[in-house]
Each structure stands twice: as C-alpha cells, then as structure tokens.
Amino acid sequence: MSSLINEARGIVYFNQSLSGPCQGGSIIRMSQVEHDFCGAQQVAAMGQVNALIKDLAPVLNSQSLAYSFGPGLRTMLKSYGNSVYIFAMADAGSSPGHRSFQLPSGVSGRTAEVIGEHRTIAVDGSGAFSDGFDDEAAFHIYRVQI
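The chain above was modelled as a monomer; its predicted structure follows.
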C-alpha cells in the first residue's frame, strides 16, 4: 500500500523466495498445488490486496489532490463521485500509534468509513478524526462524503 500512497502506477510481486524456510521459484503456483504450502498465507494476502486495488481502481485512477492531513502520516487524497478517499499509513521512521486527521475545507461528512474494515469513525465539527496504526505496515483507506 505504501507504493500506491506514494503514487506508484502499479505493483509488481516478486514470485520467488531464494532463502529462508519457505523457498521456491514460483510461490504463487506452489500455493495452488501444494497442500499446506508455507507461503500460502502470504499469497492469500496478496490476493486480498489485489482485490482491494481492483475495487478501488476508479478512485486510484483519478487525479490526486495535494493536501497534508497532519504530522506522522503518509497520505494520498482522491476525490471521486461525492466522496473523498484518504489512503493513509504512518510516516516512515515514526512509531505506530494514533494519528489525527484534519479534513480539507468543503468536506462536510461527519463519518469516515474505513474501507474493508467494517467500521466508521466519527468526524467532529471541525473536520477532525483520529485512528490507530498498529505497526509500520498498517494502512487505512477512508471514505468521507464531500
């Protein structure tokens, strides 16, 4: 997700593991044909990321808007339909934990739907909300009505 937040136009997966306890030359294929393959969880996670990207393709293909949501965050802001989408991770080198977001003026939604997590976060009257990032790889995608 960090690649997308930083404006990558695609993702390439390295389909090999050349060292460690789970080696193979075609990890994706091995997860399909080998029962209890050691890399199956990672391949399944890759499939979840791919499905999320496919679902959000119209949003991802829209123009990004320059905006800073606050310190300690790497973010990408998109406007699509009658919503804004905020793709967010904790900034590299910062510790996991809670982050505060300040919405741009003109965004009037009072809830931030967290895509793929079956939860919403209240947005206060000043357009602020906060959320937690449990580790350096944690990311959230928020949808807020304009």
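The chain is about 20% helix and 30% strand.
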